[in-house]
Specification:
Elements (H helix, E strand, L loop, with lengths): L5 H29 L17 H29 L5 H23 L3 H28 L1
Helix pairs in contact: 1-2, 1-3, 2-3, 2-4, 3-4
Length: 140
């Protein structure tokens, strides 16, 4: 039995964050097109284009999506194994907050302090993922 909704909040939070980021990218592109600064076909995939802030937003979205399968696996396995509650739930919520902090730092600047904050938030997420994984493995 799942004792809290923290894992679901984490999963939906990551998904909602990815959706918000892609909608922001779409709005940015739409404004560029409407202003006549770019044509619809001037946003090449996988190639750096646009301003530095726009490209950081693009990379922040990609990084969020790259981590989503890990989040899904941990949440589904944790709930299936009844490993939720306590440390698992705390780690899930801290990881979600760290994802938002990482993105905010990534999008805000490429300065050394921003990159340091970004890395710290990234590392925090992975420590949380390991905590969640350990809780799952203990429940096997």
């Amino acid at each position: 039995m799942v004792t809290t909704n923290a894992p679901v909040v984490m999963l939906l939070g990551y998904a909602a964050w990815a959706i918000l980021l892609i909608l922001t990218i779409l709005a940015w592109r739409g404004l560029e097109i409407l202003r006549g600064h770019r044509k619809m076909n001037e946003f090449p995939g996988g190639t750096e284009h646009g301003s530095s802030a726009y490209w950081r937003l693009n990379r922040a979205h990609a990084n969020t999506v790259e981590n989503l399968p890990i989040v899904i696996a941990l949440v589904v396995a944790g709930m299936h194994q009844h490993a939720t509650g306590g440390a698992f739930d705390r780690a899930a919520l801290v990881a979600l907050v760290a994802r938002v902090v990482q993105t905010a730092a990534h999008v805000s600047s490429g300065s050394a302090p921003a990159v340091t904050m970004r890395f710290t938030a990234f590392a925090t997420q992975y420590v949380c993922f390991v905590v969640m994984l350990v809780q799952i493995l203990r429940s096997l």
